[in-house]
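User: Teach me something about this protein's shape.
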Amino acid sequence: MNTSTNLQTTTALFQAQGIEKYYEAGGQRIDVLGGVDLDLNQGEMVAIVGVSGTGKTTLLHILGTLDRPTAGTLLHSGDNIFLKDNDQLAAYRNKTIGFVFQFHHLLPEFTALENVMMPGLIAGEDRSKLTGEAHDILARVEIGHRTTHKVGELSGGEQQRVALARSVIMKPSLLLADEPTGNLDSRTGGKVFEMLQEMSDSFSLTVVMVTHNMKLAKEMDRCLTLSDGKLSE
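Assistant: First, the predicted structure itself:
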């Protein structure tokens, strides 16, 4: 677990205030999030748990600016993020937020190294600098010997380590993980989680992880439950 201290007395790095989300389907309104408030401090790890269908992934997508809320505000260091237009949001997301999903979403035609470098290449970063940083991060997640292998040549656990390395190459402030160990056996999943903790500690990275694994959730700084559209401790 992270050893962050005095979390409640620090100024929150990210603040979600009154986040609501509903959809219209067949003339009916489907409420998913009913006013979610969440403060996230730098370097802390927060688990979000709850039964399937409660909106955990929807909330993660809004925190990651992949989706806009119906109502509510998302602040990063006091800046109202959803006042940005879509192009500005895309640039913000690329540099500020890392993602790790249950399905790794790696690009099969590229090597492990190239997959890790991809966010930086999209942002126009220097290729030689990116190459060195990608090698370093892949070594951190203990897969430095597989950099030239394509996705199909890697095991499930190795693929998820590459996805984790890719998520931190831009040194984001926030990492969002949606069931990152859900497709892995308990031993491999535990190892990936340990690496997630290490990344948080090394980069003072704020982590929000949606999981059904209560054992892992209890190892994080806070465990929150999403139910009836609201978060609770």
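Now, about its shape. The first strand starts at residue 14 and ends at 25. Residues 186-203 form the longest helix (18 residues). If you'd like, I can walk through any region in more detail.
User: That's plenty for now, thanks!
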